[in-house]
Design a protein that fits this description.
Layout: E1 2-6, E2 10-11, H1 18-36, E3 40-48, H2 52-60, H3 65-82, E4 89-92, H4 96-111, E5 115-125, E6 130-132, E7 138-140, E8 143-145, E9 153-162, H5 168-177, E10 182-183, H6 185-196, E11 202-203, E12 205-206, E13 222-223, H7 225-230, H8 232-235, H9 245-250, E14 254-258, H10 262-275, E15 283-287, E16 290-292, E17 295-296, H11 307-314, H12 316-326, E18 333-335, H13 337-366, E19 370-372, H14 379-400, H15 404-425, H16 427-433, H17 435-456, H18 461-470, E20 490-492
Parallel strand pairs: 1-3, 1-14, 2-3, 3-4, 10-15, 14-15, 16-18
Antiparallel strand pairs: 5-6, 5-9, 7-8, 9-11, 12-13, 16-17, 19-20
Helix pairs in contact: 5-6, 11-12, 12-13, 13-15, 13-17, 14-15, 14-17, 15-17, 16-17, 17-18
The structure holds ligand ME8.
Length: about 500
């Protein structure tokens, strides 16, 4: 099986912050999870570089727009490895390959009689790069604002339109057949009621600025930034060559987006695709919004969280873990320093880290750095092993359903049971009374620690690399396909330093 996962491509008008990091890490987690299942996986991210918002930002800095986007895109590209993310491609919408794919898509829509020329008159928000109906806006002192709080302006210009209104019934039919195509369920319902509220034809070109992909055979129009941007997902699979291996293998894919851009992905994008004789996305998951200590994250409040700073302060895997353990994927979350310290100390330092550290150093000191497969399995041991299998099944099921927090909970609840087993079996006491039993118990604990580590790898990959080294193992030996049967005759241990030091508040 194959698995294609994408982040939104990020606007380069500003530097990346924790919100961008969050979506990218989420995709990395699902990509690594699928790689660990031995699936053929493709993880795409990149930057969205056209449109009025980006042009305005370049102008404000008095910089040539191309030079500006080259610089700004670098910030996003360099952040990816700093987040511990292992992407397979990074796309830029100013790449020639993308421009020609977007033009091909345009011509395809035109040839399929889906585009016509007319005049647009209505509200537009440059910050959201979105058109709004007046009924969606809120009146404020000096005008109107969009649901996002962004200001809107009245625009009037000649424009090409996409016949979105023709796709209302087809979209509803598609979503009725594919009830899991939009997750979480509440977002699915939101999209359905938006479509049922009626779809108007969509303006897809602009004439009042130049920074965009030129509409084919037109001098005055550039493409609306969203038709250009959405096309990135198929450009990366070598569209328009739909018979190439990547396109055949990976389309349709899974899009992870923030709830702010669900409508573009779940309404406009599938309509463009179907209108161009292509399959709509397999799945769109809309996640929630992060606030900082209870406040909306914004430049004007001066509370933007810089991903580099918090990673340097708390550690990469600590942040990755916090973001996905603390808040159910799909819900809004609040970023608080207390919450990070509590979560990391309780789960990573105490529950998991201490287990590894105290058992590994005990084995090194008292069992010649080695454990061997026991001849006898007692009922308590069997229970420990069986319960791993149950936790593993639940973990798989939750990860398949994009519920990372629940999958992590499955492992950490199980690790608490492992700790209880350690306390009850008390290998340090057995050392004096029954050395054989002590060795058996140490084997079971070590085996289970390794198995849990493999399950945690998608979320905290660099720590798991270090942990597996303690046992002379690596992901070359272990994955989610063979983990249940992993049962080696001996495991030799290396000395290590604590992997998850406590965070002092
Ligand atoms: O919308 N909490 O780009 P963008 C959680 N270029 N996620 C957040 C967040 C927050 N506070 N802030 C941002 C665009 N995000 C378009 C996309 S795709 C074809 C084009 C994340 O730079 C979240 O994923 O505004 C959101 O959807 C995305 O950044 C918006 O990034």
């Amino acid at each position: 099986m194959s698995f294609f996962i994408t982040t939104p491509i990020y606007y380069v008008n500003d530097v990346p912050h924790i919100g961008h990091a969050y979506t990218t890490i989420a995709c990395d987690i699902f990509s690594r999870f699928n790689k660990l299942k031995n699936e053929d996986t493709f993880f795409l991210t990149g930057t969205d570089e056209h449109g009025q918002k980006v042009e305005k930002a370049a102008l404000a800095q008095n910089t040539d727009t191309q030079i500006f986007v080259d610089e700004m895109s670098k910030n996003f590209r360099e952040l990816v490895p700093y987040l511990g993310c292992d992407n397979d491609d990074f796309i830029r919408t100013t790449d020639d390959k993308h421009k020609s794919a977007a033009k091909f898509l345009w011509n395809k829509l035109k040839n399929n009689n889906q585009i016509y020329l007319s005049n647009y008159e209505g509200w537009y928000s440059i910050r959201d790069e979105a058109f709004y109906q007046e009924s969606e806006l809120t009146k404020v002192e000096n005008g109107f604002v969009a649901p996002s709080g962004a200001p809107v302006e009245w625009v009037k210009e000649e424009s090409y339109f996409f016949k979105l209104s023709e796709w209302e019934d087809k979209l509803i039919k598609f979503y009725e057949k594919n009830k899991d195509a939009i997750l979480p369920k509440s977002r699915y319902n939101e999209v359905i009621s938006f479509i049922k509220g009626g779809l108007k034809d969509l303006s897809i070109s602009r004439t009042t600025f130049k920074w965009g992909i030129k509409v084919p055979d037109e001098d005055n129009h550039v493409m609306y930034v969203w038709i250009d941007a959405l096309c990135n997902y198929i450009t990366a699979l070598n569209y328009p060559d739909i018979n190439n291996n990547n396109f055949k293998k990976f389309w349709p894919g899974v899009h992870i987006v923030g709830k702010d851009i669900l409508r573009f992905h779940a309404v406009y994008w599938p309509a463009f695709l179907m209108a161009a004789d292509l399959k709509p996305p397999k799945k769109i998951f809309a996640h929630g919004w992060w606030t900082n200590e209870g406040q909306k994250i914004s430049k004007s409040l001066g509370n933007v969280i810089n991903p580099y700073e918090i990673i340097d302060q708390y550690g990469l895997d600590q942040i990755r873990f916090f973001l996905f353990r603390e808040v159910p994927f799909g819900n809004d979350g609040d970023f608080s320093k207390d919450a990070i310290a509590q979560r990391v100390n309780a789960d990573l330092s105490n529950n998991f880290g201490n287990l590894i550290q105290r058992i590994a150093s005990f084995i090194i000191k008292n069992a010649n750095s080695e454990v061997s497969k026991p001849n006898e399995i007692k009922e308590k041991d069997n229970k420990l092993l069986q319960e791993f299998n149950i936790a593993f099944r639940n973990y798989l099921n939750n990860m398949e359903n994009f519920q990372i927090d629940k999958a992590l909970k499955n492992i950490f609840e199980y690790l608490s049971e492992v700790n209880a087993y350690v306390d009850e079996q008390a290998p340090w006491a057995l050392k004096k009374t029954d050395i054989n039993r002590m060795q058996d118990v140490l084997y079971f604990i070590t085996l289970i620690t390794i198995k849990c580590s493999v399950l945690l790898q998608p979320v905290i990959p660099s720590s798991i690399d270090k942990i597996l080294k303690i046992y002379n193992l690596s992901l070359k030996d272990l994955n989610l396909v063979n983990i249940e049967d992993f049962n080696p005759n001996t495991i030799k241990l290396n000395k290590s330093n604590p992997i998850f030091p406590r965070i002092e508040q």
